[in-house]
Design goal:
Helix content is about 55%, strand content about 0%. The protein has one domain: Orthogonal Bundle (Lysozyme). The protein has about 210 residues and is mostly helical. α1 crosses α5 and α1 packs across α6. It binds 2-acetamido-2-deoxy-beta-D-glucopyranose (2 copies).
């Protein structure tokens, strides 16, 4: 569990760095030097450009909003910012970490569906970000404007929607979920101490998750 959440958070930071590279063309010279001096089998020997393009077969399709965005050289550059990524332990461990990273970022950016051409797992890196969710800040300060689909899914503003944004897949649309109730318990306690009302839609039990 702890390992999985670590992996997920490092996946997110690497994906974030990966994305930043495209915007700012960052270079990570110190890490790059470390890389060159310490690694005889760089990531590029495990993930060749050809393999990369075959894994993310549709990333440059016209239908993908990230078309042209996630190129191989930027991936390699991004990994240099995380010199331990895919570079710790034996070859099996390294490959497993890279596979896990690709799986996590593919899920976050997938354009696939069950019957998609080439199968559901040929569509990683189709979107630039996780499927768009509103920001928790906007929700809490009244700047969230639900779409018609959000309204139909009961995703209206309130603490429950923040829970939905953070972990809705596991906690929302479920009656009396213990984790969601624990968040509500904390929120009620702190709101009471601050002397403020908790507002409406505390619970996400009746909301569809994102
Ligand atoms: C990859 O993307 C980066 C950042 O946008 C860009 O500087 C570079 O030229 C691209 N490389 C290729 C081979 O398209
Ligand atoms: C929205 O909330 C109402 C009232 O709790 C519930 O009956 C309905 O099923 C909810 N809709 C969805 C899409 O979950």
């Amino acid at each position: 569990m702890a390992h999985l959440s670590l992996l997920t958070s490092s996946s997110s930071s690497l994906l974030f760095s990966f994305s930043l590279l495209f915007f700012f063309s960052l270079t990570c010279n110190v890490e790059a030097r470390y890389w060159q001096h310490n690694n005889c089998n760089p990531i590029s020997s495990i993930v060749t450009e050809k393999l990369y393009n075959s894994l993310f077969l549709h990333k440059d399709d016209a239908a993908c909003p990230a078309k042209g965005f996630y190129n191989y050289s930027s991936f390699i550059q991004a990994t240099k910012c995380f010199p331990q990524f895919g570079n710790t332990g034996d070859m099996t461990t390294r490959k497993r970490e890279i596979a896990a990273f690709f799986a996590q970022i593919s899920h976050e950016t997938t354009g696939g569906w069950a019957t998609a051409p080439d199968g559901p797992y040929a569509w990683g890196l189709c979107f630039k970000e996780e499927k768009p969710k509103p920001s928790c800040h906007d929700v809490m300060v009244g700047r969230y404007h639900p779409t018609a689909a959000d309204i139909a899914a009961n995703r209206t503003a309130g603490f429950g929607l923040v829970t939905n944004i953070i972990n809705g897949g596991l906690e929302c649309g479920i009656p009396d979920n213990a984790q969601s109730n624990d968040r509500i318990g904390y929120y009620k306690k702190y709101a009471q101490i601050f002397g403020v009302d908790v507002g409406s839609n505390l619970d996400c039990a009746n909301q569809q998750h994102y």
